[in-house]
Design goal:
Layout (H helix, E strand, L loop, with lengths): L2 H21 L5 H9 L14 H11 L11 E6 L2 H8 L7 H6 L2 E8 L6 H4 L13 H25 L3 E5 L4 H8 L5 E10 L15 H4 L4
Amino acid sequence: MTATKLNDLRIEAQGDVTLLRSKISNLTEEQLDFILTGARSHYAWQDKPVTDAQLHRIFDITKMGPTSMNCCPARFVFVRSVEGKKRLAASLKPANVPKVMSAPVTVIIAYDVNFWTELPKLFPHEDRRPHFEGKPQHCEATAFRNSTLQGAYFMIAARAIGLDVGAISGFDNSIVDEIFFKNTSVKSNFLCNLGYADETALFQRLPRFDFSDVCKIV
């Protein structure tokens, strides 16, 4: 990429952000309630399908969330078939089996420790591969951290298009990796059920910290 082309792209990007800010400065309280402050985690589901178009839309929103060096290490496996669910169930704690089996889709949010090999595509203006090559611990930490971010973007994106989510950490990562990612450089991070919630299964919202409990301004 030439210096002139890079400068043109930067100017275009700056203009895009300026234009967006001229249209909207913040979300409304109702919109924030819809995706975060009023939303809930769900573990019971209506018998209503999630379409391929919805999965594509969620990913197209998710992929625009920031990651360090635009490394984008997250990989997503959408488990929708009964056969796939049965395979996944082998990794679950017993209490999570019915939650997964009843969900329209369960997403394995994973990460590729060899994400750095794609940096020439994702970070084309400078070769950042030497930051990671031959450094497995750094690769692991970077991939795990940024895939977790992308998993959070995924959950917010799903809510933003009108779906409900329920994240699950009660499973054996090694079993998931053996079943779904054997002989690859991909590892599982966490699971997330996706669909339309059965709200009759909800209980009261659990407590949260106040700002003064966990925050400092220094």
